[in-house]
């Protein structure tokens, strides 16, 4: 049984159903994302930890609550992630200049280097994979990427 069919089993029995376009897209997206996540600068870093570094890299400094909201996790869970990243030297906590009760979380140069290297590795992996495709296939994926971005923004 193919991997796609394995993930489209019906709940009522164990016989595979024909994959729907939604199931095919879900499965392909999941497998591609999982494959790209293996391209990272620090092998021991979890996906959640890297997501925090990437959020700070893209969106700038955050409070703990803002990071928790952005990543859709609880504040205590985010606090554990931030503590680990701080202990590793990837982020720093500083008091907010305007409100001393708030703590601002920012990337350190080491944290920025991890994101830069991981993004570089992932881009290189995708570029290598794209080089094996035809011009028409690359254009199809470019079109699909725009559609997928719209879907993700919902």
List the helices and strands and how they pair.
Blueprint: H1 3-6, H2 21-37, H3 47-59, E1 62-63, H4 64-71, H5 75-87, E2 91-95, E3 103-107, H6 109-131, H7 135-152
Antiparallel strand pairs: 1-3, 2-3
Structure description:
This protein has helices spanning 3-6, 21-37, 47-59, 64-71, 75-87, 109-131, 135-152; strands spanning 62-63, 91-95, 103-107. It has 154 residues and is mainly alpha-helical. The chain has a domain at 46-152: Winged helix-like DNA-binding domain superfamily/Winged helix DNA-binding domain (Arc Repressor Mutant, subunit A), CATH 1.10.10.10. A 3-stranded antiparallel β-sheet has the order 1-3-2. A hairpin with a 7-residue loop joins strand 2 (91-95) and strand 3. Helix 3 (47-59) packs across helix 6 (109-131).
Quick rundown:
By secondary structure, the protein is mainly α.
Please tag this protein with its features:
154 residues; mainly alpha; 8% strand; single chain; three-stranded antiparallel sheet; 62% helix; Arc Repressor Mutant, subunit A; 7 helices; elongated
β content, as a range? 5-15%
Give me the CATH architecture of the domain at 46-152, please.
Orthogonal Bundle
CATH topology of the domain at 46-152: Arc Repressor Mutant, subunit A
* The CATH C-level class name of the domain at 46-152: Mainly Alpha
What general form does the structure show?
elongated
- Rg, please? 19 Å
